[in-house]
């Protein structure tokens, strides 16, 4: 099986797969912003959020910097 060269950004099908069952582009953008812990993402004219492959791979594989969510610290 021959794979197509990877683009620097996720394709529409990959964004749809990550955000299933969300179908509206703005809802997908909000979901990805929450998932990646960013304030906003750039968008294409059709509304598809532009997410870099490196950014999503680091975040999903926990290789990038990770900060703990704010809240109670129950450990003594």
Number of H- or I-type helical stretches: 3
Shape: globular
Radius of gyration: 15 Å
What series of H and E elements makes up the topology? HHH
Tell me the span between the first and last alpha carbons: 54 Å
Give the low-pLDDT segments: none
Class based on secondary structure composition and strand pairing: mainly alpha
Q: Number of DSSP strands? A: 0
Helical coverage, percent range: 25-40%
Strand share of the residues? Answer: under 5%
Biggest sheet layout: none
**What value does the average pLDDT take?**
82
Describe this structure in words.
Helix content is 36%, strand content 0%. The chain is mostly helical and 76 residues long. It has a domain at 12-60. The chain is globular and about 50 Å long.
Features:
single chain, 76 residues
Give the helices and strands, then pairings.
Elements: H1 12-18, H2 25-36, H3 53-60
